[in-house]
Amino acid sequence: MRTALALLFLLAVAAVPGALFPQRDLNSQKTAQYIAANGTVGDVLDALQLFEVFSSVWFTAIYALLFISLTGCLTPRMVEHIRTLRAAPVPAPRNLARLPRYEARTVVGSADDVGETLRRGLRGWRTTLRTVNRPGSEGPDSATVVEISAEKGYLHEVGNLVFHFALLALLVAIAVGKMFGYEGTRILVADGQEGLCNNSTAVYDSFRAGSVVDGTNLNQFCIKVDDFRATYLDTGQPDMYTANVRYQSGSAIGDRRWKQRDLRVNDPLRVAGDRVYLLGHGFAPTFTVIFPDGRSRTQTVPFQPDELQTMMSSGAVRFDTPAGLYPDEKVRRTKQIALEGLFAPTAAFNARLMTSTWPAPNNPAVAVDVYQGDTGLDTGRPQNVFSLSVDMINQGRLRKVYRVNLVSGQQKRLTDGTSVRFDGYERWVSLQVSHDPAQNWVLGSAIVMLGGLVLSLVVRRRRVWARIIPIQSSGDVDPRCSVEVGGLARTDQANWDEGFAAMVDVLMRPMGAIDRPRPSAT
Fold this sequence. Notes:
The chain is of the alpha+beta class. Among the domains are: about 1-85; about 90-155 and about 460-515, TATA-Binding Protein, CATH 3.30.310; about 295-425, no CATH class. It is about 30% helix and about 35% strand. It is built from 10 helices and 24 strands. Mean pLDDT is about 85; it is low at about 135-140 and about 520.
C-alpha cells in the first residue's frame, strides 16, 4: 500500500508538466512555436517528452506500475476480509477491564437469560454466544460463565476495497478510452457554408487517434456553424462564447433537415456517440484580388489571435492567377499574390501603426504586406496557414511590393493593374470532436469510488465483549449475575467515549440493573 500511495503521488506530480507546457496532441502549432521560441531548452524539453506528457514512456510506466501495485495490495486484502467475514467473532479477552471501554453491572436473572437478552439487544451485530466452564468454581450456578462476542462495521473495509477497486476500474477505463478513442480539431468559418463531416481523418486540421484506431469507421455526422456571438465584460475579458450550429447524423445525413443547437464553452454537443466542443474563436478577414483582365478571386481566411485581450490577429492569404491569364508558366509564377499582416477588430492608428483597443469588431481594419511572385501553391509542399514561407521571401521568389492599411471596402492598386481589396470579415470557431467509448465507465467508476469513500468514512469498526458471571445466592432470592462489558474501537477511538456507556445502559435496561459500579482501572 505504501508503494501504491507513492506511485499515486508520483502520478499526480508527473501530470503537472501537462498543465504547464503546451501539449502536441491538443495544439501542435502552439507547441512548435514554443519549441522554436525557446531554442535548445525547447529541444531538450521535447526530447524529455514534456510536450506529450500523457503518452510519454515515463508517464505510461508510472501508470502501469500503479495499476500493478494496486492489484498486488488489494488482492490479499480482499482474501483476508473474506476470511474475516467467514470467521466467528474473536473470543472475549481474559481481563475486560483493561480494554479502552469498560462498564460493569449487577443484574437480576440467570446467566443464560441475561446472555440471550444481551444478544437480542445487539441486533445488527455479528454475535457469538459461548458457555465457558470455570475450573475451581463451586456451586451449580457459578461453574458456568456466559460470554458474548460481537462485532460490526465490516462495511468499513468493504468501502475501502470498493474505493480502491473502483480506482483500478477508473485506470482501466481511461486506458481503454485512450486506446479506442480519438480527437480531432478543425477551424470552421461561421458563415453557414463551410462544413465538417466526420467521415475521414483528412477533414481535420489535426487528428489524434488511439493506438488501435486507424481512422476508418468513424461515427458519421456532419456539422455547420451558422453564427458566432461573443460577449465581454467591461474590462474586456470574455464573458461567454456561443456558436449556433446545425448538425445531421446517421441516416439523416444528406437530407435538407438539420437540427440546430447553441454550442457554448464547456457545454458540448453530443451527437452519434461523439462530443463536439467549442475551443476558441477568431476573425477571418475577406480579401478580393482583381487581376488586370478584370477577373477576381475572393478568399476568407482565418487569422490567428495574437493578443486575446484585444483579439489582434495575424495571418496570411495566397492567391493564384486566373487560368489563361499568363500562358507562360514562368511568368505566371511571378504574378501570384500573397498577403501577410494583421487584423484589428477595433482599430486605432498611431501615425501608420495600427493597434486594436477592444476585442469586439467595432472598427475592423487590416495592415498587410502585399507580396507578388511564387506563393508555392503548386509545389505540393505543406505551408504554414498563418504565415508565408520565409525561405521564399529570402530567396527573392516572393517580393514585397506594398505595405498598406485598409478598412472595410478600401482597396490598393498595384503598378501592373492588380487591385487588392479588404471586404470585411467573418468569424471562425475552433471545434474539437472527441470520441471516448469508455467515458460512461469512467463516470461509473468515479461514482462508485465516491460511494466507497463515503462508506469507509461513515461506517465505524466496533468490537464488544460481554462476560456474564452468576452470583451465588440463597434459594428465596432471584438469581443475579455480574455483567462485564468491554469495547474496542478499531477506528476513531476518541468518538466512542459517551456512546459506549449509553449503549451499555440500553442493553441493561430490559434486565433492571441493581447497581452500576464504577469501572475498574485494572
